[in-house]
Amino acid sequence: MMPHVPVRRSTVRRLELAAGGLATACLAAMEDRLPWFARLPAEQRAGVLLVTQTGVSNFAAWLTHPGETIRLTAEAFRIAPRDLARRLSLRQTVELVRVATDVFEQHLPPLAADDAEHRVLVEAILRFGREIAFAAATVYAGAAETRGAWDARLEALVVDAVVRGEADDAMVSRAAALGFDPAVALRVVVGSTPADVPEEALGELRRHAHRSGRSVLVGVQGQRLIVLLSEPSRARTPAGSLRGLGRIVDGFGPGPVVLGPVVGDLTAARASAREALGGLRAAPGRPDAPRPVAADDLLPERALCGDPDAHRALTALLAPLHAAGGSLLDTLTAYLDGGGALESCARALFVHPNTVRYRLRRVSELTGRHPSEPRDAQVLRTALVTARLNPDELRNPYNERQDGDVLR
């Protein structure tokens, strides 16, 4: 509500006539008290002058309508140049309002006709300054909401382009506009969308990613959540690159979360997304898999689902054995076919058990898999079947590698 004592029409007229000089005095005070204001381009300072003049006029108009609530304050910002809100931060705008209010307090009350009007003007200036500050906050909140909606659409377009394999300049430009470095190494992480309050869960996911030194792009595609996660620059080992993923994974919904392999930059992210999504489809075949699980740890299940990337990876796993000579492959086949019994394998090959031990140790060195461990034995057995079905690929496991595939 306005003060009970009305302001004379003659006083309002004096306020209207003083608008130009008061706006100029405000700009002089801003330049004197705010070092950054003097560095603004001339068109920006002219925009502030326009807003200030409109604010004085609105203040005078507001005084003539004591029965109305304040409704003219936002007009000062609506007529401002569109670029002004983008150039000035909310903190800077509040500083400008504070300086303008101080100048109003110095120059407007002396225009009052008597002490009663003087008190009315002092109180009105304080209330009007507060409303101006609230109006500024509303303008910036609206701009932030619009920018957030636009950023969310850009983010969805980048993630969709990665999944579809449409790596072009537009995708790179959109990612850069979102603050995601297209040249940084990254991996794709996929899982289910959080069921309860997904906005809060995704907000926590973003915060945990930033705390671990990673950039992140998030895409929700129905019940599927796809995250592009940069590798931290300080990570020197694979273990270091996985640090902090546990809290990020908590932002996914229930069920498996699959990590795609690390790729060199955003344009190669399709390979990581393809393997991660293939792993997500195959993950139900391994219910005891950890969360998160690497796509490479689901090779047998992916191969059973018909994943061509898994077929090539399994064939490539045996390529060093093929290159080293047939004895290693024969020994591995006999060992697995014999149920992992060392003595029966040696008898089947007509060699000493120590020779089998040596060859199995070489298999472990060349493949990184230990035939005596159940999970590794399953991977190696699936690789043997795949190699039998694709003998040409065993001799040259990368001859049909698709563009963007990752060599292991």
From TrEMBL:
Classification via InterPro entries: CdaR-like_regulators, CdaR_GGDEF, PucR_C-HTH_dom
Residue span(s) of domain PucR C-terminal helix-turn-helix: 328-384
Domain CdaR GGDEF-like: 165-281
Official protein name in the record: Helix-turn-helix domain-containing protein
Lineage: Bacteria, Bacillati, Actinomycetota, Actinomycetes, Pseudonocardiales
